[in-house]
Amino acid sequence: MNRRFRKVDKPTDVLSFPSLPVGRQQTNPVASDVVISADIARENAKKLGHSLADEVKILTLHGILHIAGFDHENDRGAMAKKEQQLRRRLGLEPGLIERTGTMTPHSVQRNRTRSANRRGA
Prior knowledge:
CATH architecture of the domain at 32-109: 3-Layer(aba) Sandwich
Structural class: mainly alpha
Number of helices: 6
Largest sheet: 2 strands, antiparallel
Order of helices and strands: HEEHHHHH
């Protein structure tokens, strides 16, 4: 899906798809989709020592923040700050941005690609 929708030929953990406005007068999306890779979520949970359920919550939060208009590649830390605040309120482990220590997903994707290659994926 990452290759198809983002033109990035690497596995990823979560993709967000904001919906398009239904009518001309509606400026905000009414519904959206968040797609999570079960394989990567399972791998992350095991590697980080928390449950798969918690990992899915972390990935869902990240995806929802993208749908809400945040973009950690371009927002100078705004998404990272918001994600951290919400994770703390929800009692969740470190999120995607914190895990890598960067504001972009590229190092995360490179690490996952290496892991997938080691598994033969």
